[in-house]
Amino acid sequence: MEDRKSTFGCYFSLGSASISWMSRKQKSVTLSTAEAEYIAANMASYEAVWLQKLSSEMFGITLDTTVILCDNQSGIHLSKNLVFHDHSKHIDIKYHYI
């Protein structure tokens, strides 16, 4: 049975080594591809913050800013737009963490 939820994936590397990767089904049904990509970028940012805290606690090193790459222009514009408009007001507040 299809549940209409999108699947997203991300991976993180440190130098040339992959240190973390995941592929998960999103917890909510999205209304557009832009919204699905925005939520995926948000989940990747949660993972990035967790990895930074883990490396800080385990090794005592502070990593530089993490760059999150997204391949959807609408999702990128939605994350850069600081003023939420009518097209994004239905997105749950927890996804604006990015």
Total E-strand runs: 2
Proportion of helical residues: 25-40%
Stretches with pLDDT under 50, minimum 5 residues: none
Biggest sheet, in brief?
2 strands, antiparallel
Question: What is the number of helices?
Answer: 2
Question: What series of H and E elements makes up the topology?
Answer: EEHH
Strand order of the largest sheet: 1-2
How many domains? The number is 1
Q: Termini distance?
A: 32 Å
Write down the Rg: 15 Å
What's the pLDDT, averaged over the residues?
Answer: 76
Form type: elongated
Content-based structural category? alpha+beta
Describe it for me?
This protein has 98 residues and is an alpha+beta fold. It has helices spanning 33-59, 73-80, and strands at 7-14, 17-25. The protein is built from 2 helices and 2 strands; from the N terminus they run ββαα. It has a two-stranded antiparallel ribbon with strand order 1-2. A hairpin with a 2-residue loop joins strand 1 and strand 2. Helix 1 crosses helix 2.
Provide a brief overview of the structure:
By secondary structure, the chain is α+β, with helices and mostly antiparallel strands. Helices cover 36% and strands 17% of the residues. Strands 1-2 form a two-stranded antiparallel sheet.
